[in-house]
Amino acid sequence: MWTHRSWQGRLLPHPLPARERLRHYAGWCNAVEGNTTFYATPGRETVATWAEQTGPDFRFVVKLPKVVTHDRRLTDVDQPMRAFLDAIEPLGARAYALWVQLPGSFGPDDIPTLARFLRRLPAAHRPAVEVRDPAFFTDPRATRLLEATLAETDAEWIPFDTTAFFTDPPTSDAERDAWTKKPRMPSRVVALTDRPIVRYLGRDDPARTVEGWRRWVDATATWLREGRSPTVFVHTPDNADAPTLARRFHDEVRAQVPELDPLPEPIPAEPTTLF
After folding, report:
1. CA-based nearest residue to 246, from 264, 259, 234
2. I want to staple 7 with a disulfide (CB 3.0 to 4.6 A). Which of 11, 170, 248, 259 is the partner?
């Protein structure tokens, strides 16, 4: 997501042509979750505009289409995968990872299917898998099985940490909506590859969000010192302040790892004036 109604006129200029929105978002953050590709595979022309609006080091973590992961559950997906990989080709190296988000019903017994799917992916693409069956987190045998399968293709395991969100009952409409929709996932602070990816869900209260991400600041700093290149996505139920929170997270990591490059300077939401 690189546009949000509550950002318009506050963080991003408004009105802003569709072909300019990603460019302005990229002034705030240097990575984005490509969640829209889950619902429909975009045209190559559209994806080409994404590449035009971002620098060569910008990271897209692009989610595989729903028809691949949920409808067909990674089986008989040659045609939709060919169409998807062709569509994102204009991104080049910006396609940092293929985000394989699996449904909660995809459990340890389905690991052979995942293994076959990952082996068939082109070597040019790095997969990152998000699982939602609790057994992968609570059953040591299932954990080891998944880790071994991912290791075969240098695939990462994406944790979706919702523990901070579910600590206390919701206090806003956005939180109440998320309370019924988001999975209650355990926290898993483990990197399998040199490119760990983290998804973190906080609260609409920024202070609560910051309080809940402490473990991730420490983990990210540790990974950087180990020579890894982590990517962290910060969410809240309403996402109203997500870009500013993401920058604050980055600043807290830089306080521990000063050699980490700063994020780019945002393009002003309003033109500067003399008065």
Report:
1. 234
2. 11
